[in-house]
Amino acid sequence: MNISTSGLPPPIVVSDGDFNRLERLLDSPVLRRLPAAVALMEELNRAEVLPAERMPENVVTMHSTLECEDELTGEHRELTLVYPHEANVDSGRVSVLAPVGSALLGLAVGQSIDWQAPGGRPLRLHVTAIRYQPEAHGDFHR
Q1: Residue 73: inside a domain, yes or no?
Q2: Which pLDDT score is estimated for 118?
Q3: Dihedral angle at the C-alpha atoms of 50, 25, 85, 90, nearest 10 degrees?
Q4: Using one digit for the tens of pLDDT, what is the confidence trace for 110-121?
Q5: Which of 42, 91, 97, 131, CA to CA, is 20 to 30 A from 33?
Q6: How far apart are CA 71 and CA 65, in angstroms?
Q7: 93-95, strands of its sheet edge to edge
Q8: Residue 84: CATH number of its domain
Q9: Could you list the residue ranges that cross the membrane (predicted)?
Q10: For residue 87, what pLDDT is reported?
Q11: How far apart are CA 134 and CA 140, in angstroms?
């Protein structure tokens, strides 16, 4: 587990392609005011940005399929991190604008982050595995 004892969130890494696409998404005047968009922008602002070709294989990127655990409830999930128009909760496709989605973006296997679900319920998400990462498979043009 990698929870910072300083009270700060763990470091995150985002590919340049994901960073640019997410910035364009957040450039919408309608989205910009939403709390979820503000939270995502805060995550992007603290991220280390790497060329997609140099992205570590153990990092959650857009369209990654991952396993995670809520350490506070013990609930395990398999999720795919997607853009809002691709989201489908029933099939495990979680929007990057959902609290869980923006919390997971850029985390590496073994890292955890404290986050709040809608309604204020605390989450402590721990990334346990990456099942698929586009960059690791040479898919740089999503």
Answers
A1: yes
A2: 74
A3: 60
A4: 999 887 777 888
A5: 91
A6: 19
A7: 93-95, 75-82, 65-70, 122-132, 112-116
A8: 3.10.50.30
A9: none
A10: 97
A11: 7
